[in-house]
Amino acid sequence: MLDFRKAELSDKPLVEEYLRKSDFRGCEYTFGNLLMWSDHYNTEIAFADGFCYEKTGSGDDTMFIYPYGGDDMRTAIANIEKYAAENALKMTICANKDIMVKIIDLFPKARAELYRDFCDYVYLADDLENLKGKKFHAKRNHLNRFFENDWSYEPMNSTNIPECLSMNECWRAENVADNSDDYEDKLTELKVVERSLRMFDDLGYTGGVLRVNGEVQAFTFGERSAADTFVVHVEKALRTYQGAYTAINREFVKSLGGHYKYIDREEDTGADNLRKAKMSYNPVFLEEKFLITFDGV
Length: 297
Fold this sequence. Notes:
Aminopeptidase
């Protein structure tokens, strides 16, 4: 029986041990996302048979993230099936393409549908750092405009986090309108960013800060997922200086020192403007995610 509960900071060592065993690339396979978004998505975890299980939502909207840590797929799915049956839940599993193919092979009657709004945008780190070629011409122009300013870059740490918290409030003033359709979503995002900054060291995040004339104008942070992939959870810039987003993106990837082949900049959640922005950096591929249902299996 799976005994689901809210994740706690003390779970970090065990969860990350299991994550490293599976080495999945998606942004959902990071402890920071699990902990920071658990209230919003009603995410809970359980440990059984060498796997860490996650479920999100409630009632008919419950979804299980394909578990990580173990290799016995039949056991993993059997445990989810039993839990779903005992709790009168529809059995829906979210998995990457490789896992989806294996599940369909084991359960031919299962159905899989691409979960496009939550596919991660994955880029070559070398592309984001060097911005070479015609496809990055516009980005280089933005970068050059920003570099005309008196700017500096530094790693995020306990010394500059208070300034990042203040900049987060400035970003709110620029971007969150009380009567906007996405008001509640933006507030949730701001709260997650604030909490993440306050727990930066506890979560083991890596981040960067961009200044102009000594004032913080942009910041970013994230953590690794797979051994070859770094996930950027948050990237914020104020509107004062053209090219600030391009600059914080480039300088942060540069600061990672070539330790990762890929940079995962997460999903667009179906937002047209966000999709356009993420596509403008020319992803090398999408980390596809599928919703797999087992009705009648």
